[in-house]
Amino acid sequence: MMHLLPQPGEPLRDYRDRILPLAQTAIAPQRARVARMRDDFAALDAHQRAALDGAVQDAARAIQDRVTNGLLSGELRPATFKPMTGVAVARDVLDIVDRGNTRFLSSLTPDQRTRLASHRFDFADYLVFSARWEDALGVRDSAAPR
To answer: If pLDDT is split at 50, 70 and 90, which confidence band does 135 have?
Structure first.
């Protein structure tokens, strides 16, 4: 377990580069699962698939922005953090997810919405596991000098 923690003196980019492949391997089965459920749910046409992908991308970006702004502004600073601040942030994140879900649902036919009610596919589950959260960590700059 200690090997998963940053090592003394280890630069954060080195830690990220060491841990990211493990995290991606761990999440790969979940990403495959939500993709299978999406494909099993309904034959989405190109417009519907674009609506789903766009809603996921926009929601993920908005969540990343909300959390990043909270960190940078000090709102989420552990020394001054209050539980109600967490409630407000959680509410904002849930509102973002709900707007994404509403956007996706609006692209479905009535028959597809009826099928979705009894199907295991879920927008929030799909968002959590299909969004490439690791991109927010600057993975693309891993070749940059340290």
So the answer is: confident
d(CA 10, CA 12): 6
C-alpha atoms less than 13 angstroms from C-alpha of 65 in its C-beta half-sphere = 8
What confidence tens digit (pLDDT) does each residue in 41-95 have?
A: 878 999 999 999 999 999 999 999 999 999 999 999 989 899 999 999 999 999 9
Kindly list the domain boundaries of the chain, sorted by start residue: 12-136
Cβ 98 vs Cβ 71: under 8 Å: no
Give this prediction's pTM.
0.81
HEC string of the chain equals CHHHCCCCCCCHHHHHHHHHHHHHHHHHHHHHHHHHHHHHHCCCCHHHHHHHHHHHHHHHHHHHHHHHHHHHHCCCCCCCCCHHHHHHHHHHHHHHHHHHHHHHHCCCCHHHHHHHHCCCCCHHHHHHHHCCHHHHHCHHHCCCCC
C-beta of residue 7 within 8 angstroms of C-beta of residue 15: yes
Check: CB of residue 34 under 8 Å from CB of residue 126.
yes
